[in-house]
Amino acid sequence: MQHLSSTRTLFPLALMPRTSHSCHPVRPILKNAWPVLVAQLVSIGMMVADTVIVGRHSTQHLAAVAVGSGLYATLALSLGGVLQALAPIVGQHYGAGERERIGSDMRQGLWLAGLLTLLGAALLINPRWLLAPARLEPDVENIAASYMRLLTLSLPAALGYRAFHATATALGQPRPLMLIALLETLGHIVLAWCLVGGHFRLPALGAVGAGLSQVIVSWASFGLCFWLLKNSSRFAPFQIFAHRETPRWQAQKELLRLGVPIGFSFLVEVSAFTLMAIFIARLGAETVSGHRIAANLSAFVYMLPLSLGIATAAQVAQSVGARNEALARSYAFAGLKIACAFSVVLAAAMLWLRTHIAWLATEDPKVAEIAAALALYIVLYQFFDAIQTVACFALRAYKISFVPLLIHLGCFWGLGLGLGYWLAFLAPEPQGASGFWQAAVVSTITAAFLFGGLLWWVTKRRSQHSPL
Fold it and tell me: How many CB atoms lie within 10 A of CB 175?
């Protein structure tokens, strides 16, 4: 491998990351965060579209999509989380000016996406064992099984897109993600409407039509990723497809070492809310409906710290690659400050609007009352959720992923679910659904202190040993 100074001389000036203190750390974080935020919010539109379009077709088909899409999303996000390991690897190589290694990183990431597809397909091809805990009616289970089998075809494209997503954000190029998300969602809305209801002389396929639409737009999006990687001026200099490359054990080992804990962390976070909903379902339809509205609101507002975390991690990784530990620390804590500031504003808005939002989601007064009451807990933990999210992503930028997994396990499964179950059902005065949300507040505050403390310790230690 060439020396750092020689690789810098070969790296085009326009593509060099900005790693000097003359660039205020807030600006590049905000610049890269807003396209990621738009892409995330637009992607939610696909789920909303499925709910509206399939719901008007059939209640049975909607139930099948609700369960099937939830299970598929959990699997796809977990496997996609493994590919998130590309972000710190690519970001550090970019910061070091090692352009020739970025193309190899992406090629190895695509090989890993292929291997993960085989694992995911093995789980989805016969999905009835995944559906069994839901105890669906036989007709609904048959529809959900067909829907999930069809989505197996979209998995290679979805995981390939996650590899592109990690690479693009690491390079500070999130705007193509926003464009792809917009086109994908618009295409899905039109195509799903045609295939679910049988418009323009197409057969009415119901839930299967929504799945088929997702398969088509997923592959179209992945094809657009390939085109951009090969032809766009943003990515062409990295010559990702200039060479053929077989899987390399050392590269795959590093991806798995970083990525497997990240994938499990994603699984812990997603499954915590999924299991919470299953337990709360015991309390009746009105309670679980109110919880669902509050959970959807929580997922919506989480997109802001998530986007800031991704943008912050990109800047931190680039600075680490450039061996500028002081700047990396500056970016890490700038991201925390931005997230905290926005979270205060967002929490105030939710405190004011939570009742109105609940009434927008339901016409049932009891459900709206429950949803508004549970949304108050989102207001309470929003500030701490911003801290733990951004700090976790910043730690991953330093290639630290195993300890964050342990924190996630202890906080979200241990405190969130364990303490939540006790408060909800076993405490001297059972709190019902509120017990799980009270535990969510405790677990999020604990995670914020642990992640924030770990980030402070890591950055301070690295700054003290920095060669600069």
Answer: 17
Instruction: Give the whole-angstrom CA distance, residue 106 versus residue 166.
Output: 9
Question: Cα 315 to chain center, whole Å?
Answer: 18
Distance CA 57, CA 312 (A): 42
167: left (phi over 0), alpha (psi -120 to 50) or beta: alpha
Q: Which of 172, 164, 117 is nearest to 397 (CA)?
A: 172
Q: Directed axis angle between helix 249-280 and helix 365-397, to 10°? A: 160
- Measured in whole angstroms, the distance separating CA 119 from the mean position of its chain's CA atoms is 20
pLDDT at 361: 66
* Whole-model pTM over 0.70: yes
Distance CA 24, CA 29 (A): 10
Predicted pLDDT at 214: 94
Residue 142 CA to residue 342 CA, distance in Å, equals 44
Coil/strand/helix, residue 427 = coil
DSSP characters for 247-274? --HHHHHHHHHHHHHHHHHHHHHHHHHH
Could you list the beta-strand ranges (E) of 394-451. none
Residue 1 has pLDDT above 80, yes or no: no
Alpha helices in 198-206 (DSSP H): none
Q: What is the pLDDT of residue 23?
A: 55
| CA distances to 11, 191, 310, 451 from 168, in Å | 18, 27, 11, 25
How many CB atoms within 10 Å of residue 14? 7
CB 324: neighbour CB atoms within 10 A? 21
- Contact 269/122 with Cβ under 8 angstroms? no
Task: Name the amino acid, one letter, at 79.
Answer: L
Q: Which of 443, 263, 326, 303 is nearest to 386 (CA)?
A: 303
- pLDDT of amino acid 99: 83
Give mean pLDDT, residues 22-39. Answer: 85
Tokens of 69: 């899409």
170 vs 300, higher pLDDT: 170
| Residue 313 tokens, joined | 């991690």
Better-scored residue on pLDDT, 34 or 296: 34
SS3 of 461, please?
helix
400-416: string of b/e by CB count within 10 Å (b at 16+)?
A: bbeebbebbebbbbebb
Among 192, 214, 219, 218, which Cα is nearest to 205's? 192
Task: Please state the rounded mean pLDDT for residues 435-456.
Answer: 95
For the chain, what is the radius of gyration of the CA atoms?
A: 22
Distance CA(323)–CA(416), nearest Å, equals: 38
The three-state secondary structure class of 455 is helix
- d(CA 142, CA 208) in angstroms, rounded, equals 11
Please report, as a single letter, which amino acid is at residue 103.
Answer: G
Candidates 287, 446, 423; CA nearest to 367 is 287
